[in-house]
Amino acid sequence: MALIEILVEFKKGVADPEGDNARKTLEALGFEGIKDVRFAKTFLVEVDAGPAEAKKAGKEMCEKFFANPVIQKCTVTVR
Q1: Sign of torsion over alpha carbons 6, 10, 12, 16
Q2: 27: containing domain
Q3: Which residue in 2, 6, 8, 49 could disulfide with 53, CB within 3.0 to 4.6 Å?
Q4: How sure is the predictor about 25, in pLDDT bands with cuts at 50, 70 and 90?
């Protein structure tokens, strides 16, 4: 049994309105020194596989389902 952690975030240069809104809100709440906030999604997928198979499956899940490769990037970690 393996747990695949898939982090999906926008590539650099792609507008991130949710991150921008969070930064503005944090500043309005009095937090100082915030340079940037980026929005990301994390998916946790349990699979019945070994670590190498799970990593391969996670990358394939990213390519086929979780991310738009034009504007997003995925990071796959197996726990």
Answers
A1: negative
A2: 2-78
A3: 49
A4: very high
